[in-house]
Amino acid sequence: MIPELGHFALIVALVLSVLGAIVPQVGIARGDTRMMALAGQIAYGQFLMAATAFGALTYAYVVSDFSVVNVAANSHTAKPLLYKISGVWGNHEGSLMLWVLVLSLFAACVAFRGKSLPLRFRSRVLAVQSTLLVGFLLFMVFTSNPFMRLDPAPLEGNGLNPLLQDPGLAFHPPMLYIGYVGLSVAFSFAVAALIEGEVTPLWARWVRPWTLAAWVFLTGGIALGSWWAYYELGWGGWWFWDPVENASFMPWLAATALLHSSIVVEKRDALKSWTILLAIVAFSFSLLGTFLVRSGVLTSVHAFAVDPERGIFILAFLALTIGGSLALYAWRAPRLAPSGMFGLASRESALILNNILLATFAAVVLVGTLYPLMLEAMNGTQITVGPPFFEYAATVLMSPLIVALGFGPLLAWKRGRISKTVQVLLPAVIIALVIFWSVIWHDAAGLLMTGFGMALGIWLIISVFLEINSRIKFIRQPGQFFKRAKRQPRATWGMSLAHMGLGIIILGITVSEAWTDETLRLMKTGESTEVGGFTFTLEAVEPVAGPNYTAVRAKFLVEKNGHFIARLLPEDRVYSDPPMNTTEAGIYPLVRGDLYAVIGEHAGGDAWSVRLYFKPLISGLWLGSAFMVLGGLISLTDRRQRIGAPAGKRRSTPKPAKQEA
Amino acid sequence: MAAGLKTRKKQRLLVVSTALAVLVGAVLLVLFALGGDSLSLFLQPSAVIEKNIKEGQRFRLGGLVKKDSFKKLEDGLTFSFTVTDCVTDIPVSYHGILPDLFREGQGVITDGALNASGIFVAEIVLAKHDENYAAPGTMPKNAAACEHPESNGEPNNPNNNEYGG
Q1: CATH: 1.10.10, 1.20.120, 3.90.1010, 3.40.1350. Which one for A1-160?
Q2: What confidence tens digit (pLDDT) does each residue in A598-614 have?
Q3: Shortest CB distance from B38 goes to which of A344, A389, A600?
Q4: Predicted TM-score (pTM) of this structure
Q5: Alpha carbon of A565 to those of A431, A516, A586, B37, B133: distances in Å?
Q6: Measured distance CA(B141)–CA(B118) in Å, rounded
Q7: Chain A contact set for B15 (CB, 8 A)
Q8: Preferred mutation among B53, B77, B94 to probe A, highest tally of A CBs within 10 A
Q9: What is the ipTM of this complex?
């Protein structure tokens, strides 16, 4: 009964979304404000129905209702509750259900928060959002119905892929989806602005919090997925340039570019048409990612069952959405007259450089991801594009970005002075050079790139401190610190924190790549071995039992100079439903780096194959990502982001920059 | 004044488009310069012979792990097995910990190069991840040559998802 209710809610949601796509547009054409206002109500209705359907599916999972095909194929009674719930989106149909839920949630949020938007514009935005929803609901109802029944119902389900039964991965897809789908709001705002034929600084301010929220979730989702790969796959790696990883990285790059270009629109009323294009491209990358993952064109850990019919539907939807919005852009964008002049050394120029580099990088990743597919389609040759390609491109394109990133926030709008900026940043330049020299002193050829990477990371971190100092003048007047610090807008603090996070990530990547110490060997219980200056002793290997798996667990004692440091407990798990092994690395994070142990197979007697690592500063990756997410969140709480705030508060919001010729 | 603005705008447009062109050029250079290293062929055993792959050239070898070919060497960390497409066999050796899902009779992808004695020395071994995941391209192109492809008790179907496609 409950699944039928869910199915029904899904169909009602489809009908509502069709209405939501048409009625407001007709209302605008006729100048009928009542029809325009209906867009808000419809958006709430869509969300209510999507939530009902999602709730019904979750209920079926929680009570293990195996008469539903989807539940029988992906769940099992012996699974812990958390993984019963995360199993909802651990498969094709369920993940679409989540996509639809988030899409309708964002529409409802726009309807709720956007009361201060002009009615006409808000209705346009909601109509575009509804149109997207129509596409996804059609896809669900006709090719991927999660409520399909199974008769007779099996007694037990197939279970969820054990690799996915992990807290990190339980929350990775929802976060990533909120990020992907959050970009749909920027897309809808862009398309609505194109239809209206006008982009104002106010538009940029409306769209900014949505982009920022999506960016925060994308960042968090990608970091979480990468962390999962690090401790669950047991290779000690955290990023493989897998096509599916690239699919989430491209929208992130575009969203990051969009965040920066929309500042220029807001403050200086320039880069308008480029910003609109970026908003379209960012969401297109999200759709492309979905297509690549869901259509079975690519196969990887993330891919679900292959189904050509679904692939064709998504491809058609993709072509319509991306093609349509780009055609609209080509037609309307010339109307968006640029204004606002600026010199070569200015904040605007720095942000344009940021955009060129980020966009080029996204394009390179796109080429690297699709090239094997195109080549195979053309002449059947199968190739893979390996990490060296992406790493080389990242180094070439991101290095100038990091160098410029130190200067950017210090440059004034319109006309900045490079010489003045260099003066402020001199200490950072000196420290970075010292780091570079002291690293390559040991091994000029082997550590050239390491020295360069470390210098870049340090340069960025210190230049952020110097930039903060130039604003709150801590060194000159420490007494005024709190007064001045409090007066800084939160968005500025958010920016500094996120930039510093990037510096920490670069430092973590470079140092861990260069100085990871790794050993692969057989160890008997009681034996010791040295890795990275630490003594690892295999104390025991014993069987343990989990809720739905059994495992062998190794106990490693880690000491340094005879002092106890940590105990690592890596496991090799055997799940029964479905039958499969997974590796759980034993990890202990120190400030200096991570101790990392993996237990392999039994080599007879009391010997086991083990893999031991010391990964210096790898925590920089997670710390830096946390800084980025935190920076985004702090920036979101900035007063300027709260457009819907009552009029009384508007007193303190700065007016958008006047146009200057 | 208005005319002056127009030329300045034109100038800026020029700067931006030049910057873009330079970057795109740089990227293309990267693509070609690294062509050998970063783009690797994905081949099944028969194709390795056909294309006369030279010793030391890095490529990916995909196929099935031949039954009863798996051996563990004395050090306990080096393994040898045969990758087959049911027509041609290629011996593989690997030093490391094999992935959890490595099984005889199932699909595998290895990344490495042939040595002087014709053994494929693998640096990376990837196995299929679960019953829905198939390492793409490991299903032999001439599947008919395979007598009894193992498929977890499911009906014997050469197009079974088990081996990809």
Answers
A1: 1.20.120
A2: 998 887 788 888 999 99
A3: A389
A4: 0.88
A5: 32, 18, 14, 41, 40
A6: 22
A7: 344
A8: B77
A9: 0.71
